[in-house]
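Quick review question:
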C-alpha cells in the first residue's frame, strides 16, 4: 500500500519555492540597508572630504636639491590636514603610504564614496622649479575637444545634452571657485615677503572626473632650495595644514546640501 502525505511532490516543490520567496522578500530590506549604509553614512551623517597627496611610489614629483621629494611633502601635509579637521567630518586619503595611484583611480575613489569635497595637494610649484608661491587651481575647460564616448545625463532640465566626464566639473564650478578663494584667503598670511598666493582656473588631469567641488593646492616648489628647507619644517607644514583645514571647515559650514548638488 502506498501511503500519501497529502502533498504531491509537485505541490511540495511549489510550497518550497513560495517559502523561499517569502524569506527572500523578508530579507531584502536588510540587504538594501546594508548595501546603502556606506553611502548614507558618507552623505548624511558625515561629510566626506577626500585629501589627495599627489604622486607616490616611483612618481616622486618634484625633487629638492637636498633630496626631499614632493611625494613625501604631500603625504605629510595630507595627514596633517586630515587630523586637523573637526571629527564630524570624515577625512579619507587617496593614499596612506608611499605608493602611486592612477589619477583616474583617485577620481573614482572620490566619486564612489560620494565625497563632498576633494582637495589635491602638490608641492611642485606648478612646473616652475623656482616657484615661491602657492597656486590654488580649480577645474576649467579643456583647450581641445575630447571624446564624448563616456557620457551621462545629469537629469537637470537645463542640460543641453549628455555631460561627459571631462565636463562633470561644470556643475560644481561655482563651489570649486568658492573653495579656491577660501583656501587663498587662509594661505595668504603664510606667504613670505617675496611670495604670492593666487587662484587659477585650469584644465588639470588631477581634477578631471571629480563629481564634487574640487581644488588642487600647488605649494611652492620643493625644487627651490629656499622652499625645500621651509617644507622640511614641521612647523611650517602644520601652519599650512591648519590653514587648509580651516578653509575646508569654512566651506562645509557655509555650503548647504542643495548647493553642493549643482
Ligand atoms: Zn605635483
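Suggested answer, residue by residue:
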Amino acid at each position: 500500500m502506498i501511503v500519501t502525505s497529502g502533498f504531491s511532490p509537485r505541490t511540495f516543490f511549489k510550497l518550497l519555492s513560495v517559502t523561499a520567496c517569502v524569506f527572500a522578500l523578508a530579507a531584502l530590506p536588510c540587504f538594501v540597508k546594508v548595501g546603502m549604509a556606506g553611502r548614507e553614512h558618507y552623505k548624511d551623517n558625515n561629510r566626506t572630504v577626500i585629501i589627495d597627496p599627489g604622486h607616490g611610489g616611483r612618481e616622486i614629483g618634484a625633487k629638492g636639491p637636498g633630496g626631499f621629494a614632493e611625494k613625501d611633502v604631500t603625504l605629510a601635509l595630507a595627514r596633517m590636514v586630515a587630523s586637523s579637521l573637526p571629527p564630524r567630518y570624515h577625512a579619507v586619503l587617496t593614499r596612506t603610504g608611499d605608493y602611486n595611484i592612477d589619477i583616474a583611480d583617485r577620481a573614482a575613489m572620490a566619486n564612489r564614496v560620494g565625497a563632498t569635497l576633494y582637495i589635491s595637494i602638490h608641492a611642485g610649484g606648478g612646473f616652475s622649479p623656482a616657484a615661491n608661491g602657492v597656486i590654488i587651481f580649480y577645474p576649467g575647460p579643456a583647450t581641445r575637444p575630447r571624446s564624448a564616448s563616456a557620457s551621462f545625463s545629469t537629469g537637470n532640465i537645463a542640460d543641453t545634452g549628455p555631460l561627459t566626464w571631462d565636463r562633470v566639473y561644470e556643475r560644481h564650478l561655482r563651489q570649486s571657485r568658492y573653495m579656491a578663494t577660501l583656501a587663498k584667503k587662509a594661505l595668504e598670511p603664510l606667504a613670505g615677503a617675496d611670495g604670492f598666493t593666487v587662484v587659477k582656473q585650469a584644465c588639470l588631469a588631477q581634477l578631471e572626473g571629480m563629481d564634487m567641488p574640487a581644488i588642487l593646492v600647488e605649494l611652492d616648489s620643493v625644487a627651490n632650495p629656499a622652499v625645500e628647507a621651509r617644507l622640511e619644517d614641521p612647523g611650517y607644514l602644520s601652519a599650512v595644514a591648519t590653514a587648509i583645514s580651516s578653509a575646508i571647515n569654512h566651506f562645509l559650514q557655509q555650503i548647504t546640501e542643495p548647493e553642493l548638488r549643482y
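Why it works: The pocket of zinc ion is lined by residues 54-55, 61, 70, 122, 124 (CB under 6 Å). Residues 9-45 form the longest helix (37 residues).
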